[in-house]
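Workshop exercise sheet. Pairs work together: one partner reads the sequence aloud, the other fills in the structure field after running the prediction. Swap roles for the next sheet.
Pair: D.N. / O.F.
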Amino acid sequence: MTAPAQGSQRLFAVDALKGFAITCVVMGHAVLRNASHPADNSLYLLLTAFEMPLFMFLSGYVLPGRVRGSLPAWLRKRAVRLLVPFFAWHAVFFLSLRASTLGDQPPVELLSGLAGYLGKTIASPTAGLWYLPSLLLCSIALAVLFPLRTRPLLMAAVGWLGFAALLWLRDRLGIDADFGLLKTLTYWIFFAAGYAWGEWKRTLEPGRPLMRWAPLLLYPLFAVPVLRAMPSFGLYGNSLAKLIPGLPGIGFSAALLKFAEPLARKVRLDSLGRLTLGVYCSQWLFLRVHFAEGVPGVLATFAFTIAASTALTWAITKVPMVRGVLLGEWARPRSTAA
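Structure field:
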């Protein structure tokens, strides 16, 4: 059997890592919903150390070569791709939470409540689907700083300082809404690092044997004790402190994929990776189901949620109009890496 082409291998690595990341996200949320003290749970600490940094890194990694032509036109497409699903899924959540009273509410009252709810979610998207507006803010920063793309450290630093300045100005003006800036301040550097890595190396495979095995063996031992001992540095310091477990966690994920690639191909982890947006958004519909306490509850919630959200997302992809609204895909792409 011939080896896969480099481009095909690159697509597999991106999609498989996205599949791994969304699996970790759902497991982390299952722990959060079922564990008595999730903040002290070692598995929860380990997963949250790298899952969203990995997502942001991959989101930046796939962009070199896609950002072409008019930057404003690219940003408009990006906004549709990210904000339409953000608002659509929040509308689904709003209606699902009020399903038992929908028949008793006048349409005007229902629409007014929905409009107010959507306004609050975009003003302060700190829970649930915060990743989508934060990714849009990262994309805007990339467009503004595009002339610095060949100087990645400078681009990352200027972008971080820009987001920090906007948050400082918000505090000075006494504005409660943050429009996703809080999360973006934390995760922008991972997005910028991913973009720079895609421009420079164009492969996610660890090179030297030491780079393959050291993260795989050492990271789980390193991350949890460091996170438990990590002091609070305040708003700006905490966003930089996220780099300590986050960047090695990305290396750990790549090393793990290299080690477990035959298994990843067998279970079609890359196929799950191409459904990550839908799984990420729809998981909240199923996480509320409670099965049991403790570890059995965590495992049952995880298995049910990952299966149900994957099945729902797969069904959504089969209906073009629904796919466009809930996934932002008006034409089916090869890969759903955001």
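Discussion prompt: The chain has one domain: 6-327. What would you look at next?
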